[in-house]
Amino acid sequence: MHIDILTLFPDMFTGVMNQSILKKAQDKDKLSYNLVNFRDYTTNKHHKVDDYPYGGGAGMVLTPQPVFDAVEAITKNRSQSPRIILMCPQGETLTQQKSEELAEEEHLILICGHYEGYDERIRTHLATDEISIGDYILTGGELGAMVVIDSVARLLPGVLGNTQSAPEDSFSTGLLEHPHYTRPAEFRGAKVPDVLLSGHHENIAAWRREQSLIRTLNRRPDLLDRIDLSQKDIKTLQKAKKEIENPK
Length: 248
What we know:
The protein is α/β, with parallel strands linked by helices. The chain has 9 helices and 10 strands.
């Protein structure tokens, strides 16, 4: 995958893109990226990328020309059309399923806004997707773009050392992930559940599924309405609800 990042602050990405999993992805030739300062594409003598909004109002709005020209320069010699993602608080909320969808692409362009917002023509005539990372406002789209890149890059084949890591993550199955334990088997009086020490893989898988269901019920019950539940899952949830309602 190749990712072009349109930003007025390219230095913000340097540390993030060259650490941890993102660096490993590049070392394995699974990911490449290019930082594009779209101010370099302005045609006015003052190199301005923003202007006052028509109709009045607070703040400044990003003008369309430099953003359009930057994207056109990036895509000029490419045979396939990329997904052009506008980082925007009005966009679709990023989910694991969206990250999985984007991980199937070969080329992404992320546009990081700033100031009061974008000229609407960037949204309606250029972007293919609009993504938000949550219902809150950031100074610019850079931090959101970093979240998108990280969530997508780790899903690329061969990036993570263990091929089972990504499919078992929280939200990949529609549920929150089950609890994890490692050595020692007992720490300050708290013991690892016996089933995890049993070596019985079917029982371990059943326990993990049960714990994922219970954890999702307790922390994100809204997720349960979005997935298909087996009869066994339903019984597990019914039992857990009774225990919540009638604690011992």
